[in-house]
Amino acid sequence: DFLPTVMDILGVDRPPEQQSWAMDGQSLVPILNGVKWEDTAHGIREVGFGFAKSNRDMSGWGYRMGKWKYVLESFGCSTQACQQPQLFNLQRDIGERNNVANSRSSILQEIEGKLQA
Fold it and tell me: What angle do CA 98, 104, 110 make, to 5 degrees?
């Protein structure tokens, strides 16, 4: 989704000779503008990201899969609790106050598998 988003922001299209090439992904600009991201015919939309606190050390991860949000560390992480995988049901807990990683271990494992793939 990164390339379609950047292209959308810049207002550019692919060159004519690349129009027939397959491109997987969808611009995130509508989401940034407050439009609900609908699921697709292939299933729920998912997006994952990693970040580094220094140099090339990937030290944190986030993943959104439908109503589920996975977080492993963050820039604001300063306690032992947030250094462990966290899972939130955003339909029920938009404020991310109730970590359900222990009670929803199958969802947690599914997301972690996607991050390792």
Answer: 120
User: How high is the mean pLDDT of the chain?
Assistant: 80
Round to whole Å and give the CA distance between 16 and 114. 34
> What are the Cα distances from residue 112, in Å, to 8, 27, 38, 55, 64?
30, 24, 23, 23, 11
Q: Give the dihedral sign, CA 96/97/102/104.
A: negative
What pTM does this model have? 0.60
Handedness of CA 88, 94, 97, 103 (dihedral sign): negative
Q: Which two tokens stand for residue 117?
A: 């793939």
Please, which residues bridge with residue 58 across strands?
52
